[in-house]
Sequence to fold (328 residues):
Amino acid sequence: MTVSGRYYTGGWRIGNLSLGGRFAGRFSQDFQFRVNEPALPAFPLKITPEAATALVWTRLAAPLPTMLPSLNQLGFDYIYWIIGAVEVTPPDAAGQGRCVLWAIGARQAPNGSLAVDPASDFTLPLSGRYQGSDFILANRRFKMAITGIPIPFNLFELRGQLGSDLIVQPGATTFADAKALSIPKFGPYLVIAGLANNWWEKLLVAGTYITRPYPAGGAANLAPTGITVERLGYQLPTSRSDGWVRAVFHLEPGAAYPLSQHRPGILLVDPERVEAILLDYHACLLAQADDDGNLHSVRLLIPKGTHLPSRLRAYVMLDVFPFHQQEL
Fold:
């Protein structure tokens, strides 16, 4: 691989932006890499009728662009997600497979444990592939609120190597791509500060994160008892009208599933590609409680004009457990 370009000296500095200056020379450097092929460990995520493998994603750090930690590192660092497996295909002869994961926001409970946060800004799927324990997960064209600011992402991507202990190994990376001027309130200031690529077009962010196993005492990844999906309705969107998927629940006598403690959802998956349908799941999901505060229904809005594959699979998610699945 060769990296080459030109460099300038002089000019005026405004934040991370250089204006003017004079041409001072060129640079070019060749890089060579050797890739070893060790034995591939097994991908540690799986789903059973009783539980889905889940992990905690946290400590997001975004040091590139270099000014970004000064602007919002505290905002990044407060993020806690619980991520659970929804679909994991068996590995092929090369050890490769595909997977779909579901991430919801979490919070620190008063006793220090990690609890589902029903009021969180975070509800999103991650689709990708794995080879052994190496993975690439991504979501595209959606909004995600960071410290309350809804940022429209072109791409949000996580890469890493996930050990059998569900701890991502050193070298984990995250990458985000957003149109700089589409970021509410701060977009123009980011451009003025020189944080946008090609002067004004994109905010490109690179960083890292850590994971740990979701605690064994938690219930977010377990199949709850005493609750069933009574019916699942579906309305296909058109070019002029929204569509929807709605699940209605039934509770057995004496059972409880308080909506104030949980984050139900509906996830749409293309079963041929093993990829989540690209929607803003946080904005499009609405859950309702019955008179006793227990979960009654959850509805996913499918905006008009959304292109859907001929085959479609719906997962009813109770926290991060794929509680019910149905072909639509």
User: Anything to note?
Assistant: The chain has two domains: 54-213, 227-327. The helical segments are 68-77, 187-192, 281-284.
